[in-house]
Design goal:
Strand 4 and strand 5 form a beta hairpin. It is built from three helices and seven strands, in the order βαββββαββα. By secondary structure, the chain is α/β, with parallel strands linked by helices. The longest helix is centred in the first third of the chain and has 14 residues. A four-stranded mixed sheet has the order 3-2-5-4. Strands 1-6-7 form a three-stranded mixed sheet. The protein has one domain: Hypothetical Protein Aq_1857, Chain: A. It is globular.
């Protein structure tokens, strides 16, 4: 098992369903998790091109959701230092999240569920 065959991110069925709905209205989507204020601990979903990533961002992987274009997931490098030993799953719950994320008007909000990387994943990502 190597890092190329593993993913640090995944998506629940419920979040995938909402992503398909949002993509129908907004086109291709991406996630960014900053860890800052203003609900920054929640993943923010944007139409591709509405949030520009740069050298201070870490690419975590791509969510492959049936029926829509792959959804890239980024995190600020500073937050990644705290989360690099975890696998992240994007889920959705009822409630209003940040007004900047495209799901906000839907009465839903994305959130991160995490688990510690397995020994095999730690080795593949060069973290053991």
């Amino acid at each position: 098992m190597d890092a190329a065959t593993l993913s640090r991110v995944d998506v629940t069925d419920a979040a995938a369903e909402l992503l398909r709905h949002l993509a129908a209205s907004h086109g291709p989507l991406m996630f960014h998790q900053s860890g800052g204020c203003c609900d920054g601990s929640s993943p923010m979903c944007f139409p591709v091109g509405m949030f520009i990533t740069g050298p201070s961002d870490e690419f975590l992987g791509t969510l492959n959701v049936a029926g829509i274009e792959p959804v890239p997931v980024y995190m600020s490098k500073s937050q990644f230092e705290y989360w690099k030993y975890t696998h992240l799953t994007i889920d959705v719950v009822d409630g209003r999240g940040s007004g900047f994320s495209v799901e906000a008007p839907e009465g839903k909000r994305f959130l991160i569920r995490s688990r510690m990387l397995t020994d095999q994943e730690l080795e593949a990502f060069g973290l053991s």
